[in-house]
């Protein structure tokens, strides 16, 4: 599975952005999709994830401001970000947990990563 994130940019505090992450390749194996972010000098942080059933989970700093969604027909996951703050500035990356089976039928879970997109919140 290959992933590519889009939609980053420069936005003023209080503004909004929508990120997209499109998957290609063996997309039928995709289960949970996750957005992460990494600011300079800081560790990578989980932002939000969404399961194949549509269950969502958010990090506390973004609850109530960010919304994750997915369109399985388009193999795309979105992150709608509102009321952006300076501390949201980071490179945003998407990942996909994939499920495969070996020749003997054993399940194998793997994680694919996409290239990030820069989000800068500044006046």
Poorly predicted sequence stretches spanning 5 or more consecutive residues: none
Per the principal axes of the C-alpha atoms, what is the gross shape?
A: elongated
Order of helices and strands: EEEEEEEEEEE
Indicate the multimeric state.
single chain
Helix content: under 10%
Secondary-structure topology with pairs:
Elements: E1 2-6, E2 9-11, E3 17-24, E4 30-38, E5 45-50, E6 56-58, E7 66-71, E8 76-81, E9 90-101, E10 107-113, E11 117-121
Parallel strand pairs: 2-11
Antiparallel strand pairs: 1-3, 3-8, 4-5, 4-9, 5-6, 7-8, 9-10, 9-11
Defining traits:
single chain, 123 residues, seven-stranded mixed beta sheet, 11 strands, 0% helix, four-stranded antiparallel beta sheet
Structure, described:
Helix content is 0%, strand content 57%. It has strands at residues 2-6, 9-11, 17-24, 30-38, 45-50, 56-58, 66-71, 76-81, 90-101, 107-113, 117-121. The strands form 2 sheets. Strands 2, 4, 5, 6, 9, 10 and 11 form a 7-stranded mixed sheet that branches. A 4-stranded antiparallel sheet has the order 1-3-8-7, with no helix packed on it. Strand 4 and strand 5 (45-50) form a beta hairpin. The chain has 123 residues and is mainly beta. It contains no helices and 11 strands.
């Amino acid at each position: 599975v290959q992933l590519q994130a889009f939609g980053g940019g420069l936005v003023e505090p209080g503004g909004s952005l929508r990120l997209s992450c499109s998957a290609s390749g063996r997309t039928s194996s995709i289960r949970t999709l996750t957005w992460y972010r990494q600011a300079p000098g800081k560790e990578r942080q989980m932002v939000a994830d969404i399961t194949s059933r549509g269950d969502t989970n958010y990090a506390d700093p973004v609850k109530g401001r960010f919304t994750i969604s997915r369109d399985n027909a388009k193999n795309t996951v979105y992150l709608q970000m509102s009321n952006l703050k300076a501390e949201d500035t980071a490179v945003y990356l998407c990942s996909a947990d994939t499920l495969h089976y070996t020749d003997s039928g054993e399940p194998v879970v793997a994680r694919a990563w996409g290239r990030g997109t820069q989000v800068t919140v500044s006046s």
